[in-house]
Amino acid sequence: MKISFENPDKVNGLMTITVEEADYKDEVEKTLKDYRKHANVPGFRPGQVPMGLVKRQYGMQVKMDTINKILGENLQKYIADNKIQMLGQPLAPEAGEAVDLEKAAPYEFKFDIAVAPEFNIELSGKNKVDYYEIAVDDKLIDQQVEMFRSRAGHYDKAETFDPEQRDMLKGDLRELDENGNTLEGGITVEGASMMPQYIKVEDQKKLFDGAKLGDIITFNPTAAYPDNDIEVSSLLKIKKEEVGEHKGNFSYQITEISRFVKAENNAELWNGVYGEEAGIKDEAGFRKAIADGLKEQLKGDSDYRFIQDLRAYCEKKVGKLTFPDALLKRIMLANNKDKGEEFVEKNYEQSIRELTWHLIKQQLAAAHGIKVEDNDVRESARQMARAQFAQYGMTNVPDDYLNGYADDMLKKRENIDSFVEAALDRKLAAAVKEIVKLNVKSVSLEEFNKLVSEQ
User: What distance in Å separates the CA atoms of residue 386 and residue 247, rounded to the nearest whole number?
Assistant: First the structure.
């Protein structure tokens, strides 16, 4: 077997592989003998089918499969041995003729290879990159305390409706006729729940102001929730398509008023958020635990922004790279056949930007000995799980539960690449922060979020 590789412009490569009969003959014969042992042909006992018949029936397919396997193995070996940084997969030349395997060997196969552009990116203490530290101030801690109090809150009974207190009403709904009397055969809903503060129309909302337990309010649901048949159908317990048949007034007799009450800032709340094992004895300890948690959480946000700033810095330092555009578009089209050329043209520039950053990250990782291990990928899944639980105020999720949730996410192949990239970003940020000079800027969370939104 002969392999040659031409790469005159450094990014468009042409690989030629010449396959001789000796390269595949033994493997083909061995495979056909195995076929013969198991072939089930009428008129012949198992293992006694004439080899000539086996060759006529299976020979060409076995030959094709064997040659394809040899091509794949030797192409990848040549790429690895010669340290060629191939982008995407090899493609047959557009103008190339198909190889006729019916003819005698040798066979010459050609492959277009997209090669990554050569560049060099080095970082040292001479390089200065912004790093935004998010200040954990009293205002931020206060907001977190109120959030925990709200999530642990409950409803108490009240006598008078107060929309400012997030009161919830429960009552009996009855459809009325044009004279204001209960409509015979009309809709009746017992125990209908309402929060009038969310009514969209002011004159309908004001009908509930100062309402007391036992009061009867007359209002119009379709007027209260215009252009929202789903809200009305939910309230009246009917199908959305039936809303148009019930546009009149309804009476609503209040049978219960529930008032939301935030949890007290005491040991019950502290233990509920962080667990008794945290040993929080007073409010100062609770605030410290919140501050520590926020610092760790916001450090991740700061590192994420740092990676974005590092990316911009490195891309500017590297400059515009030359890629084999025509070949990469062919590869992109081959991977998105169902989307067509318009999709490729529309998304090509963005894909090149992402590819450039990917190549930069690979070079930086190699230069600084950064490797993503299985445990790093697992930690990315754990962090994702932890963040999802934190959205619901669950900050003391047991490790075994967290690990189980992470394991479930790792079972989905579509999640793996994102977890690998997250792990690489995390390790790259940690390494590069020790190498470059950080231009540290302390900002509030509001200022930080504004910076992120302006990216």
Answer: 47
Lowest mean pLDDT, pick from 78-92, 227-241, 357-371, 381-395: 381-395
CA 111-112-118 angle, to 5 degrees, is 130
Rounded Cα–Cα distance for residues 13 and 29 (Å): 34
In the prediction, which pLDDT does 395 show?
63
- In Å, the largest CA–CA distance within the chain is 100
Q: Sign of the CA dihedral 118, 123, 124, 125? A: positive
Task: Decide if 87 contacts 331 (C-beta within 8 A).
Answer: yes
**For residue 354, pLDDT beyond 70:** yes
| Residue 135: HSE in the Cβ half-sphere, 13 Å Cα cutoff | 10
Tokens 């939910």, residue?
234
Tokens of 8: 């005159």
175-218 pLDDT tens trace = 999 999 999 999 999 999 999 999 989 999 999 999 999 999 99
Distance of CA 288 to the CA centre of its chain: 32
* 178 alpha-carbon distance from chain centroid: 54
Q: What percent of the chain has pLDDT over 70?
A: 99
Q: Taking Cα atoms as reference points, which of 381, 390, 371, 377 lies closest to residue 428?
A: 371
Residue type, 427: K
